[in-house]
Amino acid sequence: MNQSKKAGLLSTLFMGLGQLVITKEYIKGGIFLLFELISLIFIPKLIHNFYGLFSLGTVTGNTNAALNDHSIRFMISGIISLLVLFLILMVYVLNIYDAVIAGRKLDKGGQPPTFKQFVKNFWEKSFPYIITMPSFVMILFFVLLPILFSVFIAFTNYSSPDHIPPAKLVDWVGLNTFKEFLKMPVWNETFVGVFWWTIVWAVSVTFFNFSVGLFIAILLNSEYVKYKRFWRTLYFLPYAVPGVISLLVFSNLLNGQYGPINLTLKELGIIHPYFGLFKENIGWLSDPMMARVTCIAVAVWLGFPYFMALLTGVMTSISPDIYEAAEIDGANKFQKFSRITLPLVITSVAPLLIMTFAFNFNNFGGVYFLTRGNPAGYYAPESGAGATDILITWIFKLTNEDRYYNRAAVMSVLIFIIVAVFSIYNLRRTKAFKNDEY
Prior knowledge:
By secondary structure, the protein is an all-alpha fold. The radius of gyration is 30 Å and the shape is flat.
């Protein structure tokens, strides 16, 4: 058996053993050995957490809730243990790979690098991995952990009033929550309605943000506009102000009964019981269809400055020679825009448009801080959804107000699948990603 296989086999049996015995890399082997010894100390705790993840607790019924098992804590501890085990396995595989590589050098008659040379080479060749590793670990515990938690909750009966820990245990129920969610007419019909409104909301806001931003950018790039910096700064202000503040201000301005907008329209005679264009107060946020249009309009007002600034930079980077060549060929302004400007702009910002759609699909603040999802009564009252609720705000209501955690988790899983499939499919079709070598 050659040295590489011996080193790999020994490091498989115990981390660092191949480096210590075969390749004589004592410092590196000692580090791997110490890592495994520390890992073994925590193995009993990891096993206990895995048991809690599968059982979700067994002790219940005590009048003192502190004596009962808390199923959700067991689940979170189990997920954390899974992620920790994943990191340990990564180091374990790295240890085997390192032993095999060093053994191959011995097979070829060479010598493994000294620890000082190894550190230098590792720093030079693996610098990007070293710098991104803290972010990778944070993504595991602050992004992947909540996602896994939501997925796991969807397969339990965690809901009010019968399965709220620590008073009652939570149980694994498999696909029952999915089946229940899809079979019950109230939830099924409401989900379909909220889903289609979410699609309309995300597409409309993304389209109009891009279109209005492009239109303003073209106007401000015109040779006839003076004081361009002033106008760009002015139009950028809606984006610079925190969105929550703007949405709360709009919520007050658009109040149907006491809002300044309706009061001003009354003063101007536009709202008048006999002679006005409108006989009654305009239900900006109380009429279902008007409230939806208002949500889209406010979101566009808040979002178009970003695209205006972005597209201004994109159009500035287009070479003037292209437009000069088009003029020589007899192209008019519309043809230059439709054949040159628009295709180049869309090619440059296509990934951002897809990301903007994904953001708007889950734009909780854009709806909730303006309308709270109201007006109510548009769907079945027991569903808890309002006319302007998108999926993410409905999920918030299900968890925060009704405590239907398992049904909210089912919707979260469905949202994740929809957005992930749409984003991945469209990103892979954009030229910006097709031109990426990797």
